[in-house]
What we know:
Structural class: mainly alpha
Helix content: over 70%
Largest sheet: none
Distance between the termini: 70 Å
Order of helices and strands: HHHHHHHHH
Mean pLDDT: 90
Amino acid sequence: MPQAARSYRSQARAAGVERTRERILGVAQERFFTLAYDEVRLGEIAAAAGVSEQTLLNHFSSKEGLLLSVAEFVAPEVAGLRGPVVPGDVDAAVRGLMRQYEAFGDGNARLVAVAERIPALDRAIEVGRTGHTAWLEATFADALPAAPAARRRALAALYAVTDVGTWKLLRRDLGRSRRDTAAVLGALLGAALESVRHL
């Protein structure tokens, strides 16, 4: 077989493998973000994606491996939902957080709830926390104290205000509307930014 034909077939095979992987990830994303972790079944994901469970395992090794891959898969979408924020713009930051949490907040909160007993989840959540902290630092750098210890305390305060748990408390547990939730988050974030200057 000519080299060009072998190269074409190899590229087509690789593209097919990637399409299968993305199809599995798309189904898995929907399941992980709408069901409790223990209710997610690999066989059901495989069937919905049109592959065997063994094919799914060949790609992702385990349920935990699949979830970690889903976290990586949705990361660009999460970043897109937050959108670019002009540093210091509280309103834009809140709008971005609300877009993210309205799309993924319920699933995120469910995963956090079971992370203690599933090490792979704990690792994925830690990656998310690191990214969220970096976003806060980039978005509100000018308001943060210069001293390292004070800066860490300030970031912790901003994190507590903007965490998915705060959104869940307001939006789900207290039943506030999206508009009210955004208003409260904005007020809390503004107050936190004012207070961190004195940490």
